Amino acid sequence: MQTMQLDEPLVLETLRQVVDPEIHCNIVDLGLIYGTRIEGRKVTVKMTLTTPGCPMHESIAGGVKNALRSLEAVEEAEVEVVWDPPWNPSMMTDYGRARIGLRS
Prior knowledge:
Elements: H1 8-15, E1 19-20, E2 25-26, E3 33-39, E4 42-47, H2 57-69, E5 76-81, H3 94-100
Parallel strand pairs: 4-5
Antiparallel strand pairs: 1-2, 3-4
């Protein structure tokens, strides 16, 4: 059995499983992921939310950890939520904008 190469593209593809339940779009295409760090079998994700008072904060962070832990190569997952720079719709991918009905 071959183990997948743990790299940023795999991490980001995995994080596309995590959907903001209020906006109905995944967190990668929303532009909420500011960075990833892979250290051996530990993955740390630096991310933000659409608003500082987001009521789904714990749910989304938990979803990130669960999605990452579903990868065989990940033993530990950590989420760092930051507010700077503040999120804005221009950070979204074209797919994300289309998904929620914003024009490019």
